[in-house]
Amino acid sequence: MTGLDTGRIDPRIVRVITALALTVSILIMVALPAAYFIAARVSITATLQARAGSAANVMTEFVTRNPDHWVYENARITGRLVPFTEAVAPKHWRILDRTGAQVATLGTPATKPAITVSQPIYDSGVVAGAVEVSRSISDVLAWTVFLAVIGTALAGGSFLLLRTLPLRLLAESMERLERLQALERERVAQLAQASKLAQLGELATGMAHELNQPLTAITLAAQNAMKQLERGALDAPSLAARLDRILQMARRASTVIDHMRIFGRMDGEASAPITLAAAVRGARDLLAFKLERHRVRVVDTLPPDLPPVVGQAVPLEQVLVNLIANACDAYGEPPADADAPPRLIAIAAAATEGWVCLTVRDEAGGIPPDILPRIFAPFFTTKPVGQGTGLGLSISYGIINDMGGTLAAESANGSTTFVITLPAGPRDNRPAGPVSDLPAPPAGPAG
Ligand SMILES: Nc1ncnc2c1ncn2[C@@H]1O[C@H](COP(=O)(O)OP(=O)(O)O)[C@@H](O)[C@H]1O
Ligand SMILES: [Mg+2]
């Protein structure tokens, strides 16, 4: 009716605003003519009463002087009444005796509807008759109807205004909010991607090392085959063995590259059930080099019957990469003593009613209590420039939040535990193996 798109506004708000606008409009429609009618009636009645009262006083005096034959003094009574009749609206005057019979009259009878007022005439304190004056109120009714028409038009206008204006303002501000939210989402996605690329930069060193192994193996196998060929000692079975080794190593290399490529791409996968064990394995693979360099060992004890969680595999892996990398950073440079026991990151999980809880724990010294409340803030880092972006935990927090879960940190007695709580996915559809599209870790042994 108003050409207003209320589609995105909560229907309850639309209903409340419509009801309020309707109420105000009906009040305007009814109040205007009703107020006029009541005021006009009260004022006319008061005027008539005042005039009839004065006339009754004059008549009382007349009757007191002519108690016996006043009822026959028609002409004189009329004469006395004349001064009261000069009024704007025509009035009908009647003088009645005590029985109610008409003694005198002045003016034409008022057309219905009319207001009639009567005041007593006394003779020595006893009611001897009455002055009765009537006035038609058809003009008042006509005005009332006219005002009702105007009131209806005003009500219609105010209904449109009162309903459309707030709804339009609301729709506009919601649109603005949605635009801001879209911008914010885009910004967060870009930050997440930036932080992931920063992680990738660090992982690249490890990956180069990881790729070096299969490439060396491929080179060795090819060189051996060449030598045998030159010596004329290359038979078909040993050629097949060399080629098989080359293939294996090439596959291993491409698995490593695929994993990095998938981890690095802008996320856009659909939500699917993810097994936490696969995500932990993926994160460990990506961080294999860093773990080795810091002499840190990941010990994970995930129960095999853990329900899956629902979401995107890459972002979840990104969270785990960040938590494990943070723990490595917290352990710092490896001990000089090569025989020192490896430092541990313990990853455990448990399922409680409808939820899966994953903990990542290290013994690297803990987070000071004054820092703990700030670690999830964007850009908060205690690492030197170039080493920390301060985005990892804030992005991780957002990712877990988007999955409907929570990420929290506890730190005491030199150990730090990050607790990820996620809603458990449907157990029935639970796939047998890893469901993420991340390639499985390298199959064959190195070398
Ligand atoms: N396991 C941990 N042990 C000690 N401090 C940690 C740990 N994890 C995170 N922190 C602290 O939280 C800060 C923020 O971490 P994060 O958001 O990942 O950013 P960044 O790793 O780039 O510094 C780190 O700089 C560090 O001070
Ligand atoms: Mg970090």
Automatic annotation (TrEMBL):
Residues that span the membrane, as ranges: 12-39, 140-162
Q: Which GO terms describe its molecular function?
A: phosphorelay sensor kinase activity
Output the Pfam families linked to this UniProt entry: HATPase_c, HisKA
| Organism expressing this protein natively | Falsiroseomonas stagni DSM 19981
Q: Which reactions appear under catalytic activity for this entry?
A: ATP + protein L-histidine = ADP + protein N-phospho-L-histidine
- What UniProt keywords are attached to this protein's entry? Kinase, Membrane, Phosphoprotein, Transferase, Transmembrane, Transmembrane helix
Entry protein name: histidine kinase
Q: Which domain of life is it from?
A: Bacteria
**Disordered: annotated segments:** 423-447
EC code: 2.7.13.3
What InterPro entries does the annotation carry? HATPase_C_sf, HATPase_dom, His_kinase_dom, HisK_dim/P_dom, HisK_dim/P_sf, Sig_transdc_His_kin-like_C
- Domain spans labelled Histidine kinase: 206-426
